[in-house]
Amino acid sequence: MSAVIATDLEIAFGELLNVVIGHQTLQSSTFKTLLKRLENTLKTMEPLLFCESWGLSKLLARPEKETIMFIFYLENGKDLVLKCSRIRWWNVYKKFVHANKLIRLNNELLRFFQTEMQVNMVTTSIRSLIGIHDLEEKLDRVLSAVTTPVGTSSGSCTVPGIPQLIVGLDLHLEELKHRLLKDETQLLVVSGPGGCGKTTLVKMLCNDNGIKDMFGENIFYVTVSRPSSIKTVAQKLFEHHGENHCKFQSDEEAKNQLENLMWRIRSDKMLLVLDDVWSESESLVQDLKFQIPGYKIVITSRFLFPRFNATYELSLLNHNDARVLLCYSAFPRDGIPVNIVKHCKGLPLALTVVGASLCGQGAIKWRTTFKKWSEGQSILQSHSSMLVSLSASIDALDHELPIVKECFLDLGSFPKDERVAATALMDMWVELYNLDEKGMYTSEHLHELSSRNLVHLVPIRKDVGELEGYCDEHHVTQHDLLRELAVHLSSQEPIAQRNRLFMKIHKNNFPTWWIEQIRQPINARILSISTDEAFCSNWYDLKAPKVEVLILNISSKQYSLPQFIESMGQLKVLSVTSYGDNPAQLHNLPSIGVLSNLKRIRFTHLSVSSSIQPIFALQNLQKLSFVMCELSNAFTNDTTGSPMLPNLTELEFDRCYDLNELPAGLCSLVHLQKLSITNCHELDVLPKGLGRLLNLEFLSLNCCTKLQELPESIGSLLKLRFIDISDCLSISLLPEQIGELCSLRVLKMRGCQGLQDLPVSMSKLLQLEEVICDEETSYLWMDFETDLCNLKINVVEDDRFESFMKIVQ
């Protein structure tokens, strides 16, 4: 009987795999994606299931009915795929139903394989021989990807890609590989000055086919921030493996838990890359040297670490390679620059940035730059001199685009190696430089900085459109060397006279000038204060009457706003961001209740409570943002008794996971133009009085997965021109009143899996220009194409399937 079942199993498995591979030419892109997903699941199972020495015999040794059930799944899967191939393109309902059946089939196979087969695998030492542990980890991540809502983080330690052009590093790569692969090497330090290509070299190493073949999926890439702790590194590695709720009470606990994790995922080889490690993090590296066979560490640093006695010093580019890199940066098509290569002395970052700044400039600019450097302005006399020389990359901005240069210098307000929301920057620039409220010019400045290689714009989502706010859906990143350049250029004047004042406070050690000159005011318009996790919020007084933008970068669990905020009569923008592992508890909020000129508040990764009530009394506040905040009872109190935020035009909630309802009082914000509630997975209802927001133009509810419906009063929002309900999985019907939105121009509804039909009133949306959705939803619009002749349907693939594919591949 076992032989018969074995034959049936092999036949059923092979037939399903063949039919899945053979029908991936179906017209439906969703079917193609699901079949590719199913193919990867089957191919992952195949080598283990039919391992001649173990797999099949182990399966057949279990109760016969379990194996027969597995065969049943395989045979029914074959029939399902064949049925999918016969569905007509216009039959939306059948396509939707059968797509869900494919998802269930894949989940059933995974569940059977994971829960049934693993019972007998746990106690056997054959695990290490056949790599079953790797398979379990992959299956765990697959299932996590299937069930994790869009917007959650994944792959936090995934190896980044490499630049399009790399010169002069091939020999270094081979030498680095040779040293790394020696048996006695556990830790290797790649050292060199900032911007010399250390990170690029290590990215090349991780993307090398030989290294990938040896270490497989067990290559983990972590950028180490300054300062950092083992708790931060552990958090990233646990998140990478799908464990998003780990909390560590101490560094010792984080070290122990991380070592246990490494033992659990251990295979023959494992590589941990720590990028940009500073000298004060030497103990962190030492803590990560676990005695695990096959486990190796590579770190990059601008410092030498004699303690580790395993350093690879990266030399700079030779003249020919440097010339190639400069030509590529300055002349994307062709052309030969004047001989300024030698003044960059082979530093790749300097060549790239300087080349980009001179791109398109006339011969005069090239000659004057060459003359400056020839007169003794060496670009690499020392680390600090290099930063000063790099300021040549923004010289052209002085006369051509002076505001863009100011915007570049403002980037020094934020911590190194952290992504900055583009909206946070634009909030500053709107108030500091009297730019447009809609974001056109502020976005243009960001793109100008990006085109000069001074920042990088990273889109948050793939379906970003210009009509919704230009750069709103972007993060901004910047190389640490360029950030240091911004800080250096902003710090040339005496402290009291600086336009921007950037301060770091370690523990409770305040700068001497602050303690000794308490009564002397500072003249800064931008004040940025960064504190570490040991800071106790014991503030000295500070006279800063001209501050218009206050940025507080914090790492401690408890944080009190400084009392001297009350004296900042000109303050227009307040941004408070916690970079700790958990949201910081924010205190002393009443201190901002007296700031009559405050227009924009942005709270990020904070825990707030009912003490937020003083904010509601701010008469001139125009924008209020909560990002990754724990709101607790902040909005449960009755706010209808008195006018609340009478001039608020923008309200934003993003990734506020405990937000389950909005108070009815918010519907009294009669001047509100933009309401954005995104990735708030507990929000299940909107206020019925939403239609009272008569000036609302922009409504985003992206990835509010529990939200069940839009209120009928939405039909009163006659100025509404943009709606985003993408990934609102629980919405099954749209209200008939949506057809009354006579100004609606853009509707985004990708990933609305529960939506079965559209109301007939959609035919009345004559101003509608664009609908952004997935393929399945696009068929719901077929009946309205004749009535809405100006409508463009933009079909976008589902990001969740792409995330799945990245994990299983």
TrEMBL record:
Gene3D superfamilies: Helical domain of apoptotic protease-activating factors (1.10.8.430), P-loop containing nucleotide triphosphate hydrolases (3.40.50.300), Ribonuclease Inhibitor (3.80.10.10), Winged helix-like DNA-binding domain superfamily/Winged helix DNA-binding domain (1.10.10.10). Residues 1-151 form the RPW8 domain. Belongs to the disease resistance NB-LRR family. This is Disease resistance protein. PANTHER family: PLANT BROAD-SPECTRUM MILDEW RESISTANCE PROTEIN RPW8, POWDERY MILDEW RESISTANCE PROTEIN, RPW8. Keywords: Leucine-rich repeat, Plant defense, Repeat. One of its GO terms (molecular function) is ADP binding.
